[in-house]
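User: Could you check the structure of this?
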Amino acid sequence: MTTMTNEAPTRAEGGLTMGSHPAIDRLREIVIPIVDDLGLDLYDLEQRGGTFRVTVDTPPGSERGIDLDELALVTRSISRELDHVDPIPGRYTLEVTSPGVERTLRTPEHFAREIGKTVSVRLRDPEAAERRLNGLLVAADADTATIRVGIDDEGQPLDRVIRFDGIDRARTVFEWGPAPKPGGPKKGQKSRANRATPLGAESSGGEVPVRDSQDITPSTTEETP
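Assistant: Sure, the predicted structure tokens are below.
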């Protein structure tokens, strides 16, 4: 995470995403060529209050995540260009980070690149019969996402098609261990959790499992006057 000071007008609650504000547009024009030249991808660009958060990742389909050396290089490159161009007047804070293994889904592009992963979605409508959905993301287009929430009695998939404008928040869910087989445990077998207990939490047997190294979100910090 990089922290730079420069003053930006404070915004209300919530965030402004890529392309939704002139300051975001100016910053995006600077960031995209930098991350492209480094063989990386601009995953998200967001303004929250006086903070601009730049989230970078490896390209869609890549089997590896971004490492600390790459993140530090992106940080230095963006910082140098911002010092040179000075596109955002006043004081602001710039953060450069990676999305981590459980990543926020806020744009159609986010959903499209995460097809095949387990997601958790909360809908905007508090009166919806199923406001929270968990399942396999099986399709996404410019307006909707299709989530497989289960299997019916005849063995057919149960899919829910959700419009993006009806989603309050969504994220991918990182699965620890092998995925459970459809239909649950066989008769006479006890079900086993497929997620590890968080680091520092006590398990039923009194043991604390080691957290997978993938659960760490790389970040760097750099102060600029």
